[in-house]
Specification:
Elements lengths: L4 H10 L9 H11 L5 H10 L17 H19 L4 H5 L5 H13 L3 H24 L4 H25 L11 H5 L3 H8 L10 H19 L2 H25 L4 H4 L6 H14 L8 H19 L5 H23 L7 H8 L1 H18 L7 H35 L10
Length: 420
């Protein structure tokens, strides 16, 4: 396996590769000083590449993990929580005597939270593709059996537990049996496209279905294609998503037909893949001012997409791709940022459980309150109570259900990711 030029440069800085004319004495002198001469990017490259010569077994010590992206995962969940816990209609806010512009803005924010799913897709594609590319760089191949084993151990335990509870438990919205085969086959989004919402708290698993469908084929592409060849494939996914949306705009007036359609959601996955291939394991080197600008641009784009909610065709044809661009801005603004707020990192770590349980928690609190939270105090209890119950359920799930499987999953990881 040949080292990249950048990896070779890292080795030379550390004296692990002799530069022309270097004697043993000069090399010994350089060893004590070299590490301090490395940039942050070079240090990362060294960790990523120094396992080439010692074999695959040593890769367990080199993790690909960016804590700041866990914080971004929590942001994605919180956006989805907002869209499911706040009213979308400005009329609901006018009841509290808020000015019309404020009410309209809050309605846009509430609707725009749904694009947290788009951010989840982008992050997932970036992380999975980065891990696959690193594995291929280190071993020369992608072990498909290990990949699918890792996906099963990460996704299936909580996914199928939620389905089982939703089928037998009447509170929070029981899943109708006609939807069950689709969700069991990880195609729940298509059952919603065909029959509409199941009015169950596990409707939220439609996005997990889309991810799992995509990852049935993507590892094969990474295994068989060069890194450069993946770029046009990723661009093709972005094009395919937008073409699908335009066709759906012409044939169906409902935004749901595009929102739950796998092919119409491929652009965010394609954007994540582009980030993984182009950045090649490095973080973008932006100034804080540039990152702040990217963050503001991303938030602004997402909120502006919410203003299209009353124009379904414009929302699908223009709003959805703009939301992907907004999520891309947020990703580029955060990736590589040195922020380590431990509570937020932890909440990002348990974001899968937060996402799965939040609609159940909100429905349970609504039942406890006897229905609609008509006063500001009742709404505050509903909103905060739902969030606290969600965090509690997700924490219990991570500790007692997911963690044992995650520890088992690490045995099949040639390139380690986030520690359990």
């Amino acid at each position: 396996m040949l080292h990249s030029r950048r990896a070779t440069g890292c080795y030379q800085k550390l004296g692990l590769i002799d530069s022309p004319g270097m004697t043993k004495r000069s090399r010994s002198t350089q060893d004590g000083k070299a590490e301090g001469n490395l940039s942050v990017g070079d240090r990362a490259t060294l960790v990523d590449t120094q396992t080439y010569d010692v074999g695959v077994a040593a890769t367990s010590s080199a993790r690909f993990y960016r804590p700041e992206l866990d914080i971004l995962r929590f942001v994605a969940f919180f956006a989805v929580y907002v869209t499911h816990s706040l009213p979308h209609s400005p009329a609901e806010y006018l009841r509290f005597h808020l000015p019309k512009p404020v009410a309209a803005f809050l309605g846009n924010v509430a609707f725009s939270g749904s694009f947290g799913v788009t951010l989840f897709f982008l992050l997932s594609a970036y992380l999975i593709t980065s891990l696959l590319l690193r594995e291929k760089s280190i071993t020369g191949d992608v072990n498909l059996r290990s990949f699918y084993t890792r996906r099963i151990l990460r996704i299936w335990p909580l996914y199928f537990l939620a389905l089982g509870v939703a089928v037998v438990w009447p509170w929070g919205g029981q899943l109708p049996l006609k939807y069950l085969p689709g969700f069991l086959l990880l195609a729940g989004n298509w059952t919603i496209v065909i029959w509409g919402s199941a009015n169950s708290w596990v409707d939220i698993l439609w996005s997990v279905s889309i991810e799992e469908q995509f990852y049935l084929s993507w590892p094969h592409a990474v295994k068989r294609m060069s890194k450069r060849a993946l770029l046009p494939v990723a661009i093709g996914l972005v094009v395919l998503a937008n073409v699908t949306r335009i066709i759906l705009c012409m044939t169906s007036p409902s935004p749901g037909a595009a929102w739950y359609n796998t092919f119409a959601q491929l652009d965010s996955l394609g954007a994540g893949i582009l980030c993984a291939v182009i950045l090649n394991g490095c973080a973008p080197r932006f100034t804080l001012a540039t990152r702040a600008l990217l963050g503001c641009a991303g938030i602004g784009l997402l909120i502006s997409c919410g203003s299209l909610v009353t124009m379904p065709r414009a929302l699908v044809a223009l709003g959805y791709p703009c939301a992907t661009v907004g999520c891309l801005c947020l990703f580029l603004g955060v990736c590589g940022l040195s922020i380590r707020v431990r509570p937020l990192v932890y909440l990002g770590k348990i974001s899968y459980g937060l996402y799965v349980f939040h609609t159940l928690a909100l429905r349970l609190v609504a039942l406890a309150l006897g229905g609609r939270a008509g006063t500001p105090l009742r709404f505050l209890i509903f909103w905060c109570g739902g969030l606290l119950i969600t965090i509690a359920l997700a924490s219990l799930s991570y500790r007692w259900l997911e963690s044992p499987f995650l520890r088992l999953k690490e045995r099949f990881a040639l390139v380690k990711s986030r520690p359990v």
